[in-house]
Every structure is written in structure tokens, then in C-alpha cells.
Amino acid sequence: MILYNVTVILDESAEQDWVKWMNEVHVPEVMATNCFVSSRMLKVLDSPNEGVTYCMQYIAANTEIYERYKTEFAPALQADALKKFENKFVAFRTLMEFVDIK
User: Fold this and answer.
1) Which of 2, 74, 89, 98 has minimal Cβ neighbours within 10 Å of its Cβ?
2) How far, in whole angstroms, is CA 63 from its chain's centroid?
3) DSSP letter at 22?
């Protein structure tokens, strides 16, 4: 399993609109690609950054499916976010693999 994490640092003035848009528009569009089996949004409580920090996490079954998302769907979805919240956020993307601890 692969975890695709998007950390977003938002201007506080955009927080409410961004959370609403994520829940009502963006996350449903991402999940409609059928590249991820689940998603969750987390708010970072002890962020050292100015503004408000959130992490969006999406779980993919494998790297091939994630790569399909990245090439076929991500550019348009990311462009929508940049257009809607221009100069109101920065995003950092990280790809992680689950490791079983025994």
C-alpha cells in the first residue's frame, strides 16, 4: 500500500473556503479517479509555519496506480486548486510506503 500525502500551508483567510472546497469538490474528484482506496484530512496542531497546516492523505494499492493518478489526473486537479486559491497556499507532496513492523 502507498500513502500519497499532500501537506498544505494555507493563509488563515482562506481556511474555511479551502476546507469546504476540499470536502465538497476536490476530494470527491480525486476519489472519482478510482486510483485511491481511501482518503483523510488532518489538521496539524503544532505546525511551526505561519498560517494553518493540513495534510491530505490518499491510499493507493500500489505505485503503478499512484503513477497513473500522477500522470493522468493530478495536473488538472492541481491546476484547479492553484486557480481557486491563488497565492493563498503552498503544498508539499510526499509518497510513502507502508512497512509492517513485527
Assistant:
1) 98
2) 16
3) I
Measured from the Cβ of residue 10, the count of other Cβ atoms closer than 10 Å reads 21
Query: What CATH number should be reported for the domain holding residue 62?
Result: 3.30.70.100
86 and 17 Cβ atoms separated by less than 8 Å: no
CA distance 50 to 45: 12
Beta strands in the chain (DSSP E): 2-10, 38-43, 52-60, 89-97
Q: Determine whether 45 is exposed, middle or buried from the number of CB atoms within 10 Å of its CB (0-12, 13-18, 19+).
A: exposed
C-alpha cell at 78: 492541481
Nine cell digits for residue 90: 503552498
Tally of domains within the chain: 1
The answer to whether residue 101 sits within a structural domain is no
* pTM for the predicted model, two decimal places: 0.91
Distance of CA 82 to the CA centre of its chain: 13
Helix 74-84 and helix 63-72, axial crossing angle in degrees, nearest 10? 50
